[in-house]
Amino acid sequence: MELGHISDEEFDSHYPLRVQKVSGTQWTPISVVKKAIAYLGVDDEQSILDIGSGAGKFCLIAGSLGNSKVIGIEKNKSLVKLSQKLMDEFGLKNVNFIHGDIKDLDFSQFDHFYFFNAFEEHVNLDDQLDKELMMDPEYYQSMIDWINQKFDDAPKGTKIVTYCGDCREIPDSYSLVKSSNRGKLRFWVKRD
Ligand SMILES: C[S@@+](CC[C@H](N)C(=O)[O-])C[C@H]1O[C@@H](n2cnc3c(N)ncnc32)[C@H](O)[C@@H]1O
Predict the structure, then answer these.
(1) What is the DSSP letter of 133?
(2) What is the tens place of the pLDDT at every residue in 178-189?
(3) 73 CB under 6 A from ligand 1?
(4) Which residue is closest in CA terms to ligand 1's atom 6?
(5) Is residue 1 part of a domain?
(6) In testing the pocket of ligand 1, which one of 75, 97, 128, 161 has its CB within 8 Å of the most ligand atoms?
(7) Separation CA 81–CA 62 (nearest Å)
(8) What would the pLDDT profile of 132-178 be if each residue is shown by its tens digit?
(9) How many structural domains compose the chain?
(10) Where does the Methyltransferase domain lie (predicted)?
């Protein structure tokens, strides 16, 4: 089922109210998913990882717009279950969700990456899904450093789309190809 033509409100109505309520700040808008996936690639040779897939909105929309394999990893189990339920409902065979911590995943399985500010919750109270979480700038920095190294280890030609944030997770070995949405949406490629 192609989901690119529906509105954010219509898509979000598939979620329970508590998940709908945070859509504006936590889940990627459909217009942004369309731009991101057009850059990352839509053919079945590509696998794309959404780092911190939340309620699955990026993966579900992106997967419906082409044949690329779109995989999300998310640490919150109930959000993974919700994502999987919608994946079945929409009949998306090229989408998959993994429950776990990004730190346990082998990045070499994926060609390209989407990153929507997943670690911001450790430094910004307004950005917390998990209200029990404590502010932890040191942990935030360690995650940024860790993912920066993973991106740096990726082969030449790896593409990343970042949405929001200051992009400190992007190593110097990447070039900014273009940006959109007043600089909030950025398109990167690994040079060497
Ligand atoms: C801003 S939301 C983005 C959701 C999704 N990518 C989208 O665009 O619709 C970031 C998500 O990253 C998840 N997250 C944060 N740290 C994580 C980690 N270490 N491993 C897996 N998921 C993580 C959070 O639980 C949250 O659901």
Answers:
(1) P
(2) 999 999 999 999
(3) yes
(4) 53
(5) no
(6) 75
(7) 18
(8) 777 788 999 999 999 999 999 999 999 999 999 999 999 999 999 99
(9) 1
(10) 44-119
